[in-house]
Amino acid sequence: MKAIEQLRDRYSYGLTILRGLVKTDFKLRYQGSFLGVAWSVLKPLMLFAVMYVVFGKFLRMTDGTPTYPVVLLLGICSWNFFGEATSIALHSIVDRGDLLRKIHFPNYIVVVSATLGSMISLGINYVVVLVFAFFNHVQFTWRVLLLPLNVFQLWVLALAFGLIFSTMYAYYRDIAHIWEVLQQIIFYGMPIIYPLSYAQEKGGEIGKFARLELLNPIAQSIQDIRHNFIAPATQPTVWNQFGGWIPRLFPIVLTVVLIVVGVYVFRRNSKKFAEVM
Amino acid sequence: MSEEMTTKTMTFEDKPVVLSVDHVYKNFKLPTEQATGLKQAFINWTRGIKGYKTQEVLKDISFQVHQGEFFGIVGRNGGGKSTLLKIISQIYYPNQGTVSVKGKLVPFIELGVGFNPELTGRENVYLNGCLLGFTNEEIDAMYDDIVEFAELEDFMDQKLKNYSSGMQVRLAFSVAIKAQGDILVLDEVLAVGDEAFQRKCDQFFTDVRKDPTKTVILVTHDMGSVKKYCTRAMMIKDGEVAAIGDKESVADQYTLANLEAEQKKAEKQRAKEEQKGLYPNGLNEHCPLLRTINVSPLICKSSDTFRFDVEYQYDEPGDFYLAIALHDIARGGITYDTGAKTFKMTKHGHQTVHFEMPLNLFNNGEFRLFTSLRTQSAVDPNNTDLVAVAIDDNACTFVIRDERNRDYALLSDRAMTITPTAEESGVEIVDPGLLAQLRINAGEAE
């Protein structure tokens, strides 16, 4: 009992600030725009429409299953969350510099609040996906229950990258540009706009290694989300593509390593942020 | 007087220590080259350049603040005051030493931190409050007080960007002072706002002084507010504690340090101008040297006689005169002037002449002596022409500080009194000091 109370005392201040910052950020995100929060839904929908027409219809990258459009939308939403969360988190420490130089508060909160803001958008997007899924007659299974775990992993990944990059960005502004390019590489190195089977069939010799893409924890968690949420039958995951436990657990272990490194790097440098910015 | 002082010292030392700063050392790495990019960092690394120089801002600072104190921190610009304040507020971390705080410390390095123009007044109060570490329930409890104090009842649901700047400051200040922290840390917040606002600050500080549970740490340049509010003060100079303790003596030391620094600057300036062959402001080729130099110390008591020298160099033939004017810097105005043709100089060339004047007439204040060198006017026999004047660094500034004195008016009770007429029975003189002075004045008159 006492331990819980101590824990609450220690983190209640942080939680209060976190709540305040997330609320403010979300309120301000679409401030002054005519459609407001609707943009959270419209943006991925428009992107989805473009990609569906270009990659699905013109280039015929579909896997031929009826759930493909929903799976594509789900992938885009999830990736958008990751990209947005890391980008905002990357800038968060410097953007909140005025705060960090004037009052003392645990500054990891700034990064966490940046990723949580994107999490709200992700939630709204998933509701849209759910609506699409109903119209598409998707058969939900018990695996939907695993979805929170997968989303949590994706968030932890975003937070890990956010912590590392926001620290680096405080010292070197180049990181913002580097990360933009890296994001593109990671995006095309994952089966999001193309199904993994497409890469395996058309990739020739290299196609044999396409399943290695799933060892990337971002790809693994997004594929898990698709697999568990919409299409357990068609979506390849690290669990059904690899036999041994070592490759199966590799992305999870990597996620843990990344967040540990992120927290370590951030904590080591966070005391200096107010001075170096 | 001294008895009262000792009882005061006793009471604050009996109280528990709420802030303890122990041998704090802090340096900053100032980049010598622009190293915000990876490229520069890489180049510096390959060349083995560190890319920064280390500046020691705080060298070895130790002090303690007890509960209920109003503690002033003074010091010249660049002396490390603000850095110390940020270390106390845990925004910066010391390289060595420790800072320990008991209770809730609310720092106000700036008013309205985190205020967002796109949010309403109400939302900003809640955001600012939560950044300062208050829960929603605590802010709920303070909210009405805050709004009432800021006098913004009708505007709380307006966006902050529609507020006038005065309204914004009022809101920020209300949050600051209604925030129920145990230790308030204030950095020059008093310097902003209009007169009404200043009065509110004044009222607040007077109230908080009386509250034995609240501790205030105030960083300021303004000796007036140190003397008015503080119970104790500390002066920081070059990253070290130069003086700590009684606010009067600390304030005087600070004034002295400022005067000394000005003198040093003046000497440097003079040396530089001599090298260049330029004349300082107010001087020229006819009179290349004219300065007023103190002989007495720069801080005097009213009982002292202020002695000073005037050094000049004048080689042109003909009669010439020195005129000396005494200016009151704080209150403004010319306190005294010798008149243009009072002192006729008998020696040409490079000379130094000695003067003195009594200070008993004056209350506390800062005064400056301006000397001018004049010659007989060719057109008007009753007038003189100004040849040179010792202004800026060539003028002499001194300070009067005396326990017997007051600060407000120029003339002391010893020089001037207003008394009710002998027939007047409706006036009672309350201040016994003034009464005694009146008797002395009356005795002297007889």
UniProtKB/TrEMBL annotation, chain A:
It is a multi-pass membrane protein. InterPro entries: ABC2_TM, ABC2_TM_bact-type. It is found in: Cell inner membrane; Cell membrane. The chain crosses the membrane at residues 33-55, 67-93, 105-134, 154-172, 181-199, 245-266. GO terms for cellular component: plasma membrane. Its main location: membrane. Residues 35-269 form the ABC transmembrane type-2 domain. GO terms for biological process: lipopolysaccharide transport. It comes from the Bacteria. One of its GO terms (molecular function) is ABC-type transporter activity. Keywords: Cell inner membrane, Cell membrane, Membrane, Transmembrane, Transmembrane helix, Transport. The keyword Transmembrane helix applies. PROSITE patterns: ABC_TM2. PANTHER family: INNER MEMBRANE TRANSPORT PERMEASE, TRANSPORT PERMEASE PROTEIN. Belongs to the ABC-2 integral membrane protein family. This is Transport permease protein.
TrEMBL record, chain B:
This is ATP-binding cassette domain-containing protein. Gene3D superfamilies: P-loop containing nucleotide triphosphate hydrolases. Keywords: ATP-binding, Nucleotide-binding, Transport. One of its GO terms (cellular component) is membrane. Coiled coil: none annotated. It holds the Pfam family ABC_tran. Residues 38-263 form the ABC transporter domain. SUPFAM superfamilies: P-loop containing nucleoside triphosphate hydrolases. It comes from Bifidobacterium avesanii. PROSITE patterns: ABC_TRANSPORTER_1, ABC_TRANSPORTER_2. Belongs to the ABC transporter superfamily. InterPro entries: AAA+_ATPase, ABC_transporter-like_ATP-bd, ABC_transporter-like_CS, ABC_transpr_TagH-like, Bact_Polysacc_Export_ATP-bd, P-loop_NTPase. GO terms for molecular function: ABC-type transporter activity; ATP binding; ATP hydrolysis activity.
